[in-house]
Amino acid sequence: MEPPTEGGRSTGQEPGAAAGPAPGAAVSGAERLARAALTRIIEPGDERGGRWLRACGAVELVRRIVTDDGAAERLCGMTPKRLAGYRLRAEKAEPERDLAAIAALGGRFVCPGDREWPSQLDDLGYARPTGLWVRGACDLRLWALRSVAVVGARACTPYGSHMAGSLGAGLAELGWVVVSGAAFGVDGAAHRGALAVGGATMAVLACGVDVPYPRGHAELIGRIAEQGLVIGELPPSDHPTRGRFIQRNRVIAALTRGTVVVEAEYRSGSLVTARCAQRLGRLSMGVPGPATSGLSAGVHELLRGEGILVTDASEVVELVGDMGELAPVRHGPVHPRDALDPLSARVLEALPGQGAVSGRDVARSAGTSADEALGRLYELHSLGFVEREGEGWRLTPWPTRRDDVRRGGT
């Protein structure tokens, strides 16, 4: 490719200058073109490339790479072998064609400095994406402000799929954007859960946003693009690799307020996402599973560290949401006898399970006077807990006793 220019001259900056336009400023055509080219030249997460980009700007960095004037060799860490690799990639870079391809899909290329750029990605430092290729009509920056990642095992169990789907639907219903990687298993279940309730979801791909990967999720990714957003660092038609999946995870972690892991083995890439979230100051959460399940072993290890245990969407929102977004108070079933005062409860407990006893016997067992016991027995009779039998008292039989008939509420 030819070095990008603006007004017939190079727009590069000297080392040490600002890396690009200030947040909210208009991104020049040359800057956008250069960054689009760099997505084909430099791998996602390449911190060395990020340093060069910050030092001399996108336009100048591309010029140095493609021009044989010795300027590229002066970049710190640029070896002849590395430069040869970059130049080989630059020969195939056609940013105008890539920008036209994403536009034909109804998408766009979002750069740092664009109004739509999510500024939380800047927390990645030199590993910040050069730019993001985006499909979908929604605003990336606004959606990312209130988003949660739900990630986990590809070969998940039915339990993991159920929990991921429930979290996706629950978070979407509470007004949160569900972010995941569109993979099989937990990722797909989380996306489907959000889509099922008409909610917002975002897929971060490790390939071009026009490449349905995995192919079995082509329909799902198409639905996400229509109803939400599909984003990625790689240009149109580019393919995924193992390393690109790992680097994709850092974008998911940085983009969202927190990461929830649903089923993960010890060496799971989902744990990479959660630990990256921790390093960035985001919350990492985990859904517990059976102690005997290898697919939950990684989650349990996370929970033994800085991870926080969650079981539903409301608990996630309580952690990542704003003040006052609290999960409901959890408690067991409430029985009518729970409302009794301590003395009435003691009198009730003094009655045997079978047969009738006198009021004096009840008083003796309850540790109170005969008159006090008799008064409490009449109160318990009016409430349906006890009944008279001759001169004695007995518990109301099971079929009609109120604390069994009304169990679970008062």
Summary, kept brief:
The chain is of the alpha/beta class and 410 residues long.
Q: What's the mean pLDDT score?
A: 89
CATH class of the largest domain: Alpha Beta
What CATH architecture of the largest domain would you give?
A: 3-Layer(aba) Sandwich
Major sheet summary line: 9 strands, mixed
Low-confidence stretches: 6-24, 403-410
Shape: elongated
Between the first and last Cα atoms, what is the distance in angstroms?
76 Å
- The proportion of strand residues reads 5-15%
For this structure, the CATH topology of the largest domain is Rossmann fold
Q: Give, in spatial order, the strands making up the sheet with the most strands.
A: 1-2-6-5-4-3-7-8-9
* Rg value: 31 Å
Total DSSP helices: 17
Number of strands: 11
What structural class is derived from the secondary structure elements?
alpha/beta
Which percent bin holds the helix content? Answer: 40-55%
Number of domains: 3
Order of helices and strands: HHHHHEEHEHEHEHEHEHEHEHHHHEEH
